[in-house]
Amino acid sequence: MRRLLKASLAAGLALTAIISGCSGSAEKIRIGEVTRSLFYAPQYVAIEKGFFKEEGLEVELSTTWGGDKTMTALLSDGIDIALVGSETSIYVAQQGAADPVINFAQLTQTDGTFLVSRKKTDSFSFDQLKGSVFLGQRKGGMPQMVGEYVLKKNNIDPHGDLELIQNIEFKNIASAFASGTGEYVQLFEPEASQFEKNGIGHVVASFGKESGTVPYTVFMAKQSYLDKQQTAIQKFTNAIYKGQQWVDTHSAKEIADVIAPYFQDIQPEILEASVQRYKEQGSFATDPILDEDEWNRLQDIMDSAGELKERAPYGKLVNTTFAKTAKEGK
User: Fold this and answer.
1) Which UniProt keywords apply (predicted)?
2) Structure pTM?
3) In the chain, where does the domain assigned CATH 3.40.190.10 lie?
4) Does domain 113-211 have CATH number 3.40.190.10?
């Protein structure tokens, strides 16, 4: 991931030095989400249920497709707020950014991938992976780092005990497995539920359950933006908290009905089943506070994957002021 981000971050930092002016007003906020995922249900609920409007905000949502592109857009003021994995803020810090990227509101708190087996089994153990062909995720990204962390936790050497395939683009992993590549695959929803319905594969384990809580997807902004737009950031965080609470207190079907406009190619029953699976394992954070234990676990995972140059202090890259205020209702 560091190698993939290096060039983009350098370009973004250069653009930051050139571009002047405020990146957004107090009334309009531009969000760049790293991908379009039902994993981000509370965000879509906050939009659809009018929680941002209640706070007097207009939000402009775009999908930036990839951590490197998302960070470049943020650093160059193409967006005001990024929704992306917390590890990217650490990568930016490791590049020596003068204007650090600060995590201020957590959206998801577990990994969102599942271990899918081509063969159905009534009793799965991780030992069964030994000697198999495993279709993993991109090196340096959170899915792969969490995947390797969980395998090691279960006494599996990802690079010695199995044949690990990592050279397939994220968008093509599901189709590669469907066409016959690999005996096991690491997939997000809704592909996992869709594969079960079609008899292509069977979910045998959850990487989210196995790895514990981590700041998997977080809203972040440059320090300079947070300093200038404190009122807007507070309103934004208030709206996200309302979305999180709504998701926590409503059924998977109700949630699926609200977010359906964002996933028109997914069948309603698959969308509902996918949301239910995430709800059951606590993937959707119920408040936007990113705590220190989660932050430290994230860095343990990065360190285990060999992607952490040096540990980033919690107080340096995390600001919980807005999240705590939103939760307290002040």
Assistant:
1) Signal
2) 0.89
3) 2-110+214-328, 113-211
4) yes
